[in-house]
Amino acid sequence: MKISELFYMYQGNGLELINMTISNVSPINFISRTAQNNGVVAKVESYENIKPFESGLITVALGGSVLSSFVQNKPFYTAFHIMVLKPKIEMTINEKLYYCMCIQSNAYRYNYGRQANKSLKDIDLPSIIPTWINTYSIKPVSTTNTFTKNDLDTSSWKDFNLTDLFNLERGSRLTKENRLVGDIPLVTAGYLNEGIAEMIFTEENKIYSNKITIDMFGNAFYRNYNFYCDDNIIVLINKFNANKYILLFIVTIINADIYRYSYGRQYRQKDAKNQVIKLPIDDCGFPDWDFMESYIVNLPYSDRI
Fold first, then answer.
1. The domain at 3-135 falls in which architecture?
2. Sequence-ordered list of residues with C-beta below 8 angstroms from that of 270, at least 6 positions apart, any chain
3. pLDDT (tens digit per residue) in 204-224
C-alpha cells in the first residue's frame, strides 16, 4: 500500500526556531530535519495562534536526513520540509514504530539532489503488519549511574570558534575502483549507521581515529574507532588533550546547530571555520575540560560507553 493510503498526510508548520521562544519547561517540542533525538531540537512555547500537532503522530523529514521518521510522544511544531502522518486506522505505538522503520528503509533512494517532497506519498509500505510486532518486547538498558537532572546554566559559558579548538581536515574523494573489501569503515554523508557506507581497505586515504566528524548536512559524530572518510566529511583534529567524554560533550553542542543545514544549504569547510559554539569555562576563561568530562561521566548510561 502507498503511504497516502495508510496515512493522512499534513504539511508541517514550516516555522523557524529562531522565531520561537525556547523554554525547557514547555510541553511542546520543536521538530527539525535531524535524525537525532527523535527529531527534537528544542522545547518551545506556544506560537501565536498556531495549534501544535497532537502527540502520537509520525514526522518524516523530507530534506536533510531524508525519511528520518519518528513517533512524537508530545505535542509539537515543525520546521520546514517535515511531513506529518496520521494513521487512517487505529494503530498501536509498536505498529507506528514499525511503519517508521519501513519508511526509513527507503532512504537509500534519495541523494543530495533528490528530496522526498513529491514522492513520499507513493512509497510502498506493507499492508499486513507481522504478528510479532505487538508482542515483541525490548529489554531496557540498565545503568549503575545515579543522576539528578539539573538544567545546565549556560549564562556564563563563552563563545569559541571551532578553529580555536580544532584543526580542520577534509576527507578525500575515493572512487569505487580504489576500494577493496576490508575491515575499516568508510564514512560518508548521512545519519543512518553514523554515515558508514561500507567496510573497505585502501591505500589512497588517511586513517583517522578518536575524532569528531561533521558531514555536509551538519551531522556530527564522535568516532572512537579507525575510519576512512570521503570528501563530504570534515574531520576535527583537536588541539587539546581530549578523551571520549570531552569529545562527546562537544559533539552534542555542535549538533545543536544542525537545523541550520539541509540539501539546500550544505555544511562546508568555510562553515566550520566560522562556526561558534558555547562551552563552560574555568576561572581563567579557558574551556572547562574537567566539567565537561564529569558531566558526561555522571549521565545515566555513560557506564555503557
1. Alpha-Beta Complex (3.90)
2. none
3. 889 999 999 999 888 899 999
